[in-house]
Design brief:
This protein has 723 residues and is an alpha/beta fold. The protein has 27 helices and eight strands. It has helices at 16-19, 35-38, 60-85, 90-117, 121-142, 145-155, 162-177, 184-214, 230-242, 261-270, 274-285, 289-309, 315-320, 328-359, 369-384, 397-412, 499-516, 538-544, 550-555, 570-578, 584-603, 613-624, 640-643, 653-671, 676-691, 699-707, 714-719, and strands at residues 10-12, 217-219, 255-257, 414-418, 431-437, 443-452, 462-468, 479-486. The strands form two sheets. A six-stranded mixed β-sheet has the order 1-7-8-6-5-4, with helices on both faces. A two-stranded antiparallel sheet has the order 2-3. Helix 14 crosses helix 15 (369-384) and helix 18 packs across helix 24 (653-671). It is globular.
């Protein structure tokens, strides 16, 4: 994408279970009323940040079951009070729900976070043992007639603040979509389906992690790794050594390649051995193919049935009910408009790539899918006169953080300070940071940063998750999890990042800033809570633009050589900026293909029909791809966004929000990026609108408050070189 559990692979994480409950399990801490367990179970010690060093799988069942039991008991008391007293004030309904849900959100949220960053067989078993209980209990809350009637009465209260009114309306909508109006057999089937969906999505995610972890390719001949840059060779040798290859070195091998991004991407871009690239590519696009293929059909069938029970024609129609886009047709319209611009450009790009490859030694009949990244990298080097690996020494993680934090100070008036040791972490590589208001020194928020890939127990991708949400009722400041899968330190060198890893870090920080700089005091609308999913990528994609801003790159020391301290040469930075629109057409149609496939699967596709999801993928590829997928391509079996995350019938959100984010950045361009005072003024306005208003204001109104008008797609097309 927002985020209670780490189920997504990119962007933000979401609990599909919690999104469909009457009210999201809200951020906050308090001591549980399960006093007999508190002194022994760290998941029940909820007055501070999670005690990660003490939390083990054996704590999960007692903590979560105890929290659920306590919540259910308190909820029954709340229902009784609502029915007897007639008090339907905001505090008596919404705030009481927030208080009683907080302990479950804490314990279950921590468990799900660890499932993403410290996965193990023991934790999976413990998670699976209580997952059904969580779904069953939260479903009961979301279908409470007493609460629904109280909310209906509360909706008529003219004294509510605008944010409170949005919260009440959102809660009513969520309860309707959670089946509050169902009775009898339909209700039983709907609720059983919810439990099954949660099990299937967890299984899908675990299967993908296992498949990624299980594959490795050990190479022993120098010719097989010819072209691989020194950083990738060092990582491959270190991986081989970890697996028992004594004496493995970057120079002489052996080298172990995998399917996690720090290993896979350099191999596809730089390895000259076409057969090795083919083996890696085929392994990558068939990950979890056999185990997840049947799950896809089951997930789609159940979602279709859920939509039908609720009276909708498709699951996509259910999804759109909680989105900024007014209809499925509006999503199709945006997709078609962008496709019309991008597809002809993509065709020309492939033709240019083929001609270049042929002129430079490629002797095949046509480029294969495992050739595209390799020859694209060669064409880029030829066109712009530099290699991506030349950039790495200038983007050490600590320096990149200096630049990122300098940008946050410049735009938003906040200081970010490293505060390691003030909170427990789940791995030694994790850092802890505090966010302070620059003017007052007030501590506004905090975040954890988990920067490196750990394919043995950490899911791939990058995401922002909620540790604690802002809450006036619980007196809590926001705390975020920022999780990446970047290049780790190797051979005594610091983490030297690819430029893609730099932009990913900025992206996730954008999500985190919306969570942390919220000014909404009501938890259900604070930060990312209550923000329509197709608007939630605005601040994240907006932040990526600043990676190409000279002041960001140079003024805070973001891009300087990790050994000499010399800044990135200006001419090299200029070439990097020129490269930004390189193959923008192919990049855009790839994203449009993902969004269109997701929407078709959830809107018009019949999962009980003869056509398989993979056949639908090939059908759409005829319109959206310049190279068809392999016959045995099983990309869908790794599409965790829509089958194990919060993007079902919502992957289009990336492009929808990119229209918003590009137009938002255009406000800075219009003010003048070289006018420091103007940049600061527009930055503060962005903080006071997009980052501050959260789910308390409709996203269209938030955008108008910042920009003064409705969004235009022109800046996106211009930034992409497709105008």
């Amino acid at each position: 994408m927002l985020c209670l559990t780490c189920l997504g692979t990119v962007g933000v994480t979401v609990s599909a279970l919690a999104r469909s409950s009457a009210a999201l399990l809200r951020g906050g801490r308090r001591s549980l009323g399960v006093k007999a367990l508190v002194t022994e179970n760290p998941l029940l010690l909820q007055e501070s940040l999670p005690l990660f060093s003490a939390i083990e799988a054996v704590h999960v069942k007692d903590a979560v079951s105890g929290a659920l039991s306590s919540m259910e008991s308190e909820f029954e008391s709340l229902e009784s009070r609502l029915q007897q007293s007639g008090d339907v004030s905001y505090s008596a309904v919404i705030e009481e729900l927030e208080k009683l849900e907080a302990p479950v959100e804490y314990s279950w949220g921590v468990v799900n976070h660890l499932m993403g960053v410290k996965n193990s067989d023991e934790l999976r078993a413990a998670h699976g043992e209580v997952q059904g209980e969580v779904v069953k209990t939260t479903t009961k809350l979301s279908q409470s007639e007493a609460v629904f009637k109280a909310l209906e009465a509360l909706e008529k209260d003219g004294s509510l603040e605008p944010a409170q009114q949005r919260i009440v309306q959102s809660s009513l909508s969520s309860m309707r979509l959670s089946g509050v109006g169902l009775q009898g057999e339909e209700k039983e089937r709907f609720n059983a389906n919810r439990i099954r969906l949660s099990e299937l999505s967890t299984a899908f995610s675990n299967n993908l992690l296992d498949a990624t972890k299980a594959f490795s390719l050990t190479l022993t001949e120098p010719a097989q790794v010819d072209g691989l840059p020194p950083s990738a060779l060092a990582l491959a040798a270190s991986r081989a050594a970890e697996e028992g290859e004594e004496g493995a070195t970057a120079e002489s091998g052996p080298w172990r390649l995998g399917l996690d991004m720090p290993s896979y991407l350099p191999a596809m871009k730089f390895l000259r051995d076409r057969s090795v690239r083919e083996a890696l590519y085929r392994a990558f696009v068939t990950r979890a193919g056999e185990v997840n293929a049947p799950l896809i059909r089951q997930i789609l069938q159940i979602k279709q049935e859920q939509a039908s029970i609720l009276g909708f024609g498709s699951y996509a129609e259910v999804s759109i009910e909680r989105k900024m886009a007014p209809s499925v047709e509006a999503v199709y319209d945006l997709t078609e408009m962008l496709l019309a611009k991008a597809f002809p450009a993509a065709q020309k790009e492939l033709q240019q790539l083929t001609e270049f490859a042929t002129a430079n030694g490629f002797d095949g009949a046509a480029l294969a899918l495992w050739d595209v990244s390799f020859w694209s990298e060669r064409l880029s080097e030829h066109t712009f006169g530099f290699e991506q690996e030349e950039l790495r020494p200038y983007f050490a993680l600590d320096n990149v953080l200096d630049g990122l934090f300098g940008l946050c100070r410049r735009l938003y008036g906040v200081e970010i300070v490293r505060s390691d040791g003030e909170a427990e972490v789940w791995h030694a590589d994790v850092g802890f940071f505090k966010v302070l208001d620059e003017a007052s020194g007030e501590h506004l928020a905090s975040f954890f940063l988990d920067p490196y890939a750990r394919p043995e127990n950490k899911r791939g991708g990058a995401w922002m998750g909620v540790c604690v949400g802002r809450s006036k009722v619980l007196d809590r400041k926001p705390v975020a999890y920022l999780t990446c899968n970047g290049s780790p330190p190797v051979d005594g060198k610091p983490s030297l990042m690819t430029f893609d890893e730099v932009t990913t870090l900025f992206h996730e920080t954008g999500h985190g800033l919306q969570h942390m700089l919220t000014k909404v005091a009501h938890a259900p609308a604070a930060g990312i809570s209550g923000v329509e999913w197709d608007a939630v990528e605005l601040p994240s994609q907006f932040m990526e633009n600043w990676c190409y801003d000279p002041a960001t790159v140079y003024d805070a020391g973001m891009a300087k050589h990790y050994e000499t301290g010399e800044p990135l040469p200006r001419d090299l930075f200029g070439k990097l900026c020129e490269q930004r629109t390189f193959q923008a057409g192919m990049g855009m149609i790839r994203q449009l293909m993902f969004g269109a496939l997701d929407m078709r699967l959830h809107h018009t596709y019949d999962p009980r029909g003869e056509q398989t999801p993979f056949e639908l993928q090939h059908e759409l590829a005829e319109r959206y791809a310049v190279l068809p997928p392999l016959p045995d391509d099983r990309f869908l079996c790794s599409f965790g966004h829509i089958f194990a995350g919060g993007y079902s019938a919502g992957y289009y959100s990336y492009k929808w929000a990119e229209v918003l984010s590009a137009d938002a950045f255009a406000a800075f361009e219009e003010a003048g990026l070289d006018d420091e005072q103007a940049v600061r003024e527009v930055g503060r306005r962005f903080r006071d609108t997009v980052l501050a208003l959260g789910g308390g204001t409709a996203p269209s109104d938030v955008f108008r408050a910042f920009r003064g008008r409705d969004p235009s797609p022109e800046p996106l097309l211009r930034h992409s070189g497709l105008a």
